[in-house]
Amino acid sequence: DTGVSQDPRHKITKRGQNVTFRCDPISEHNRLYWYRQTLGQGPEFLTYFQNEAQLEKSRLLSDRFSAERPKGSFSTLEIQRTEQGDSAMYLCASSRRGVDRETEAFFGQGTRLTVV
Amino acid sequence: KQEVTQIPAALSVPEGENLVLNCSFTDSAIYNLQWFRQDPGKGLTSLLLIQSSQREQTSGRLNASLDKSSGRSTLYIAASQPGDSATYLCAVRRGSTLGRLYFGRGTQLTVWP
């Protein structure tokens, strides 16, 4: 088990371009989360999946953002028509939801997005 | 809406000191609380998880306590070391079916030799 893996680690893109990030969770974890973090702030929730079902989306997730987890394993987060305000660290986390409890959340190293 | 506040925002101490980081939350109906460490430009590393039925958890030099009724948690770091320098984040989960974590802004800790 190598932990939560995110790719790429860094992405620089021009305003208006589309970008896609990938997250590979810990293999036995059925829950996968996306958060966004800007400088000096705590992470803000974007969305999460249980298996392949997207159970909750934040109002922060505008129409330009879409996330998928097609087979209940890895997930992708796409941002269309990027804006400078999208510049942030995008963090992925995973956990296991059992019958009566949820394990602690483990985070990846993040993808740093810079929109120029 | 759950609001999480961490005090102080920054802390600078000499090596060897024992210190306490504070976290407060507005809605006491939480499922669990988790403390994380974040190094500059990196992801989050889980330190301790406290379930709502627990009062404290310990790992090495770290001890976290939880008082649900008052909406508070503290992270105690014993015998601080320069390697402890990082930002410490507190996060709460409201319910087992509500997956999201609500984070504070963190406490930036500097331990100098």
Summarize the structure in words.
The complex is a heterodimer of chains A (116) and B (113). Chain A is mainly β and 116 residues long. Helix content of chain A is 0%, strand content 48%. Chain A is built from no helices and eleven strands. In chain A, strands 2, 4, 5, 6, 9, 10 and 11 form a seven-stranded mixed β-sheet that branches. Chain A starts with a strand and ends with a strand. The model of chain A has no long low-confidence stretch (mean pLDDT 93). Helices cover 0% and strands 57% of the residues of chain B. In chain B, the strands form two sheets. In chain B, strands 2, 4, 5, 9, 10 and 11 form a six-stranded mixed β-sheet that branches. The model of chain B has no long low-confidence stretch (mean pLDDT 94). Chain A binds chain B through residues 4, 6, 31, 33, 35, 40-45, 48, 50, 55-56, 58, 91, 93, 95, 97, 100-110, 112, and chain B through 4, 31-32, 34, 36, 41-46, 49, 51, 89, 91, 93, 96, 98-106.
Task: Write the SSE topology.
The complex is a heterodimer of chains A (116) and B (113).
Chain A: E1 5-7, E2 10-13, E3 19-24, E4 31-37, E5 44-50, E6 53-57, E7 65-68, E8 75-79, E9 88-95, E10 106-107, E11 111-115
Chain B: E1 4-7, E2 10-14, E3 19-25, E4 32-38, E5 44-51, E6 56-59, E7 62-67, E8 72-77, E9 86-93, E10 101-103, E11 107-112
Parallel strand pairs in B: 2-11
Antiparallel strand pairs in B: 1-3, 3-8, 4-5, 4-9, 6-7, 7-8, 9-10, 9-11
List keywords for this structure.
heterodimer; A: 116 residues; mainly beta; seven-stranded mixed sheet; four-stranded antiparallel sheet; globular; B: 113 residues; six-stranded mixed sheet; five-stranded antiparallel sheet; 11 strands
Helix tally of chain B equals 0
Structural class of chain B: mainly beta
Q: How would you name the oligomeric state of the polypeptide chains in this document? A: heterodimer
What share of the residues of chain B lie within helices?
Answer: under 10%
Shape of chain B: globular
The low-confidence runs of chain B, each spanning 5 or more residues with pLDDT under 50, are: none
The count of DSSP E runs of length 2 or more, i.e. the number of strands of chain A, is 11
Mean pLDDT of chain B: 94
Report the C-alpha radius of gyration of chain B, rounded: 14 Å
Q: What does the radius of gyration of chain A come to?
A: 14 Å
